[in-house]
Fold Fe-S cluster biogenesis protein NfuA, 4Fe-4S-binding domain.
Amino acid sequence: MPPAHDVQATGSRVEALISELGTLTDPAARAKAEELVRVLVELYGAGLERVVEIVTEAEDAKVLRRLVGDPLVSGLLVLHDLHPLSTAERVREALDTVRPLLGLHEGGVELLDVDESGVVRLRLRGTCHGCSSSQTTVTDAIERAVVAAAPEVSRVDVEGVVDDRAPLLQIRHRPPGSCPVPEAVS
């Protein structure tokens, strides 16, 4: 199996290089470099589009599932707006992968919205009573799963539901003044 490529890291590197090209002082060199990038991206996009068409025309759902299940291919399909699943569908699938973790923390997650700017809104239900880091743990797991499945997502907003049960022990600051003297036990 070929080595895994990090689509997000590569995309970030490409963006950085394109930004650097924009700083070239020779306008002709800058224009040629930007055209080269554009032509290559269009070529690879057209090739991917044709692959998706061939697989879809052959009605080979097994091959299509393998293609969209591969992180590298899936990321490229998203980049070229060719992924057969919508962002919301991919987010729902990602949430399904983290539900077992959420179950361990007496919780769940609900997809509220995916807006046109790529912001995903989720609602976290429940908490792990007595586990102070659980909400952070599950929120991080959710965000990683969502971004892996839908790299075009610009932000993940998670609304948490705070557990309103009182903790077993509450320690509070002593009110100002002298220390109360305990009553004698008879």
